[in-house]
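Q: Could you write out the predicted structure for this multi-component system? I'm mainly interested in how the pieces pack against one another.
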Amino acid sequence: MKPVYIHSVASISAQNTVDETAFLDDLVFYEDNVLPAIDPNYKDFIPPTAARRMAKGIKMGVVASKLALNQAGIDKPNAIITGTGLGCLRDSEKFVSAILDNNEQFLTPTPFIQSTHNTVGGQIALELQCKGYNFTYVHASVSFESALLDAELQLKNNEATNILVGGVDELGDHTTELFKLIELIKTEKVSSKALLESQTKGVVYSEGANFFLLTNEKDEKCYAELIDTAIFNTLKKDNLPTAVEIFLNSNKLNPEHVDLLICGHNGDVEHDDYYEVLTSGIFSDTQQAFYKHLSGEFHTASGFGFWLANKILKTQTLPEAVKLNHVKNSEFGYVLLYNQYLGENHSFTLLRKC
Amino acid sequence: MEELKQELKAKIIDQLNLEDINVEDINDNDPLFGDGLGLDSIDALELIVMLDKDYGIKLTDPKEGRAIFESIDVMAKYISEYRSK
Amino acid sequence: MDQGVAITGMGIISAIGNNVAENYASLIHEKKGISRIQKIDTIHRDEIMVGEIPVSNDEFIAQLGLPQDNNYSRTGMLGVLAAQEALKDARIENIDAYRTGLVSATSVGGMDMTEKYYYDYFTNAECQKYIIAHHAGDSTQKIADHLGINNQLVTTISTACSSAANAIMLGARLIKSGKLDRVLVGGSDCLSKFTINGFKTLMILSDTYNTPFDEHRKGLNLGEAAAFLVLESDHVVKAENKNVLAYVKGYGNANDAYHQTASSENGEGATLAMQQALKVAGLNPKDIDYINAHGTATGNNDLSEGRAFINVFGDKVPDFSSTKAYTGHTLAAAGAIEAVYSVLALQNNIIFPNLNFKTPMKEFNLIPQTKAKQKELKHVLSNSLGFGGNCSTLIFSKNA
């Protein structure tokens, strides 16, 4: 079984993350409940003939993938695996509303074509002329982890040597309003710095694209080693500590080996207590971090968490803004990520310093 | 006919979201597909919808589109002859 | 090469039957399920034909015993029915006895409800329950819930028309890697205004019965369906003394990288997928006894896929047929229903006919099997080719 390394990282988010030489130096703090991602200059990356059809999500995915590939010095990966929770939402909304508003007449094909969930993966392949394996996972908050798991399997079995993996989701105006209606998005504006003090249900919603070049060949540029990923459709809070221990044990580790636990707290008073189970339980003495006060929540926001973990492992620094507690660490060796959304679709991802 | 040609150029830019192109940039007999403006088969489908919606011309076979959309000149001529709107 | 992965159960619901037995009976009696659309109010009703399942949502709710306040989309209900049948067929009584995952596939997801209530949501609180059921993973979660699959690896794939084939592929790999002991794999898609209008804008819908691989083909008929297979590892098959229906022997996924919706003229993506599947299976082209083609009856697909057959098989293209003349193109579910048909073909040593065929395509000399044919079958190849250039091939074998 070969090891798996993260060779490069790229993130487009509600923070200034496009510049890979920086690491959350120029933080943006919001007072809002919906955070648009900060756009790079798309024209630098995408020719106008292609860009004219692309909604934001596709552009973010295409650019993040280019950044990851450029950084890794790879022209064409062996495979492209993406994850998305809601797919190309803007085009879907555009097409549905056109159907309803025009009574099914004079509809144009572009939004329909662009709305298929695998458009980002397909578009990347088209531009790179990459004829390899190309999958898109669409399972809520494990969409990104499913892509990771698939890539991990292939690389460990040496079925590929490098794979582009990414998660992308975009905001859609109509859907945002619907989510506010049923309080999936908080109805009140929240300050980034006060997210964890929120006593209401719902989240601060956002969008973004996080792409990575994974490989089974080590390189001094590598960010981290991906040890293992696991996903669970359901997990009761009572069973969570055991599930984590089993996961760590299967990798010959115990909770004490974990130097940093990165949690997906999103300010939802109804479900953030999953994280409390771990932070006040088996990981109470471990350095803990969170990130969705910076990235916002969306189905593939855990991709931002993965980006964060990789940056921490490479730089061996932990930005103050993401700390949940203060434990003196001599070094960051093992990092464990835990995420869930609405109490479902849980994931553990284990990384190690290269 | 001149007015129709200008109208077509503006509609094409709008419908196909050609952000960096102006009406003045499109010549009447430039090829629209392939080399000239570089439109593709998805654009052809978009223009077929435009023909129906704005000029009342219904095409049933997408292949007919390629001949009609050869250039602004050809399009304008076809539309003037067959339009019902 | 590796052993194949055992298939121990199947379930299906489509326009030609509500379960495996009914589907098989329709296939051998040439009973197609294509008609004018009944359940969706669309202005295109007289211009298209579809493979619609003649059961209403209310009937499904009653059949599944769902509470009135349920938020199942039609996609979810079809999925549960097919998955239930598969589990029963595999004689699985205790789902928790082994690590049992679920990999489903869809392209419509909950869009059938979303398009219905899109604006109503703001004024009618009763329908708001469907908001959370829109996303593609929801129907999978409904299946997991209904079947009691908990604390397991559950995920959803959406790669347009190759989705369910890809779900089967991932499932096989998860078993081989030892991550799961058994897995339910397949897909579900229902008809919707979204897809009907979407395909209409691409001008690839036929106004009559679809005619795969025919020179005068006019396009596809959309369909709706769900199908699932149960894949089990060798040790579970042995321990539980399971009856194996067939094996997932080979699989391949490649990208055409030619155009967002159209396939390349030389069928490169399909060619690569088939070659990869043969490699994984450790088979040569001459070992394939029957191809269940993607064969959507669009001008583009059948030409591209036909060329791909010639690329891979030369002048010895095996007997082939498309069953889409029976069911229509069921989008994300196609790879799964055609997997069921491939297994039925193997079990019964029968090649199903490619209905409605009259005139060979002028581009090559490929004639599909037009009548049901009894033939000893060892290996069946099934293609599913989707938008975004996503090309998938599965190979099913009688023996490991």
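A: Regarding packing and overall arrangement: The domain at 2-82 of chain B is CATH 1.10.1200.10 (Non-ribosomal Peptide Synthetase Peptidyl Carrier Protein; Chain A).
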